[in-house]
Specification:
Membrane topology: Multi-pass membrane protein
Family: Belongs to the G-protein coupled receptor 1 family.
Protein name: Olfactory receptor
Order of helices and strands: HEHHEHHHEHHHHH
Radius of gyration: 22 Å
Distance between the termini: 66 Å
CATH class: Mainly Alpha
Shape: globular
Structural class: mainly alpha
Helix content: over 70%
Strand content: under 5%
Keywords: Cell membrane, G-protein coupled receptor, Membrane, Olfaction, Receptor, Sensory transduction, Transducer, Transmembrane, Transmembrane helix
InterPro entries: GPCR_Rhodpsn, GPCR_Rhodpsn_7TM, Olfact_rcpt, Olfactory_Receptors
């Protein structure tokens, strides 16, 4: 607790993405549109699944949770980034910075665990289809979702504790557009090598372990597809390929950022933008463009809405 008493920094200053005024305005317009589409796309998926009884299955239950996490994940960083693009001096209070850091890791870790659970769900559905109804029951699905939120919370608390236990007495300039553990601990008024290694070990272990489990699951699935019919292989490959694209888009940046020591690369900001801004938008696009059931359900909901409107006009 003594180190906490040494903290005199009350706010942090972001350097942002660029100091070019024209680029800032272009980024503001493009990222505003991206964020709006992210919200609309993921909300549309959640509403479609909720209002379509035939989509009340474990796979779509997990997909709706993925959309919810994507909404939360992007909302942690994007609104503050958009505000900063309009301001000459981009600041955030110490407490808000810690809160942003906590929720960033909470939702990112929850998404990692959820993608792993979705891989397990596909493994059971494709490799042991006869046992699927008894294995992936409603109770089991709810328990898995509860477990992923619990795991995400524990991970985030560890990251946050390792960050706030350090003293911060200046400087207070963060070379980023949001608060994350690596750039924040660089500003601590003490040696952070051990803390940095603990943080990398924690995040890296989760990312690499879940990624390895995902690769193993899909390797087994691909081998088992040889026994499936042509139609079964087509449907399974369509679903699994969409999931694999999401895994690559999300795990790639996470592994790049959180599994190396405390270093700084110029490409870090670009990678961070991709996984905090772009990936949450790509998730609904991938699942709606590649999933016939979701597209069909959305079409039916649209037709029902049109019929509802006509009946009252």
């Amino acid at each position: 607790m003594d180190t906490l008493n040494q903290t005199t920094v009350t706010e942090f200053v972001f350097l942002g993405l660029t100091d070019n005024w024209v680029l800032e305005k272009l980024f503001f317009m493009s990222f505003s549109i991206t964020y709006l589409l992210t919200l609309l796309g993921n909300i549309l998926i959640i509403v479609t699944i909720l209002l379509t009884p035939r989509l009340h299955t474990p796979m779509y239950f997990f997909l709706s949770n993925l959309s919810f996490i994507d909404i939360c994940h992007s909302s942690v960083t994007v609104p503050k980034m958009l505000e900063g693009l309009l301001l000459e001096r981009k600041t955030i209070s110490f407490n808000n910075c810690i809160a942003q850091l906590f929720f960033l890791h909470l939702f990112a870790c929850a998404e990692i665990f959820l993608l792993t659970i979705m891989a397990y769900d596909r493994y059971v559905a494709i490799c042991t289809p006869l046992h699927y109804p008894s294995v992936m029951t409603v109770r089991v699905c709810v328990q898995l979702v509860f477990a992923l939120w619990l795991g995400g919370t524990v991970h985030s608390l560890v990251q946050t504790f390792l960050t706030i236990r350090l003293p911060y007495c200046g400087p207070n300039i963060i070379d980023s557009y949001f608060c994350d553990v690596p750039p924040v601990i660089k500003l601590a008024c003490t040696d952070t090598y051990l803390t940095g290694m603990l943080i990398v070990s924690n995040s890296g272990t989760i990312s690499l372990t879940c990624f390895s489990a995902l690769v193993a699951s899909y390797a087994v699935i691909l081998v088992s597809l040889r026994k499936q019919s042509a139609e079964g292989r087509r449907k399974a490959l369509s679903t699994c390929s969409a999931h694999l694209i999401l895994v690559a888009l999300f795990f790639g940046p996470c592994i790049f950022i959180y599994t190396r020591p405390d270093t700084s690369f110029s490409i870090d900001k670009m990678v961070s933008v991709f996984y905090t801004v772009v990936t949450p938008l790509l998730n609904p696009l991938i699942y709606t463009l590649r999933n016939e059931e979701v597209k069909s359900a959305m079409k039916q909901l649209r037709q029902r809405q049109v019929f509802f409107i006509k009946s009252y006009t």
